[in-house]
Amino acid sequence: MLDLLTIVLPVFGLIGIGYLARRTHFASDRMGEGLSEFVFSLSLPCLIFSTLVRAEIPAVQPWGYWISYFVGVAVVWALAMVLGRRFFALKGVSAVVAGFSAGQANTVFVGVPMILKAYGDAGAVPLFLLIAVHLPVTMTLATIMAEGRQASPLVVLRRLATHPIVVGILAGSACRPLAPHLPAPFWQIVELLGSAAVPCALVSMGIALRRYGLEMGWKLPTLISALKLVLHPLIVLLLATYVFEMPPVWAGVAVLFASCPSGINAYLFAERYGEGVPLASSAVTLSTFLALGTTIFWLYVLGVG
């Protein structure tokens, strides 16, 4: 148990520091927004870039890996929308926000630091490969469902192509042949920026949790949290270990990725459409607090630590 705590506590401890700093007015919402923007726009893209440029990417696409994860996304997304409409009278974009909150993981602020802490460099390639597919799939699906027939393919593509994380992924993939020829000062700059991603992301997440709060109450956010933290990783675990063959580290990364709390993108998505904002903020807040316990459980199941 102590080994598991050494993985979880640094991650959630930094979130707690950010939360307490905001609660006691040592930090402001403006600080959290600045840290968040820095992580999204500069630090995390540099971390992804340096990892993908140097990584040994498998020659054959790991289809079992993709299928295991995204079947889980589809199941919890659909359940959240159906149950939200049936029992909580959700309609339109609000129902999409419920599904998005259940299916989209907090990869930047929780997933990256937790998985790298659990698996080290061995988990970096499957982690960032999944991030490369996860964001475009979930954002495109949510946008199409929210806008229906009015969704413009060009608008969707433009939003994805200009997203800093996608830019980091594309740049890292394109520069792989150039990696041996890039000068040492370039790598030092990239690594300094990338090394700041984890602590800055976690502290900013803590500040954000204090800001969002549980505006929606607890019933529907609890349901979404259960789908996200329990059912999603359970589906991935069963598929990755009993249906498809893959290295244990890849299976473990997929399960931990699925066990991450609801992503902050669900809140940003709700803000953009002006619907479901209290639901998204409540789901992000509650699932992040509950993830401290569920993450320890999934680490134990996976035999990590």
3D structure, described in words:
This protein is mostly helical. The chain has a single domain, classed as Na+/H+ antiporter like fold. 80% of the residues lie in helices and 0% in strands. It has 14 helices and no strands. The protein has helices at 2-23, 29-54, 63-88, 92-103, 107-119, 124-147, 153-161, 164-174, 184-195, 197-212, 219-243, 248-258, 264-273, 277-302. The chain is globular.
Briefly, what is this?
The chain has 305 residues and is mainly alpha-helical. The chain is 80% helix and 0% strand.
Secondary structure category: mainly alpha
CATH architecture heading: Up-down Bundle
- The CATH class designation is Mainly Alpha
Instruction: Count every beta strand, where a strand is a DSSP E run of 2 or more residues.
Output: 0
Write the topology of this structure.
Blueprint: H1 2-23, H2 29-54, H3 63-88, H4 92-103, H5 107-119, H6 124-147, H7 153-161, H8 164-174, H9 184-195, H10 197-212, H11 219-243, H12 248-258, H13 264-273, H14 277-302
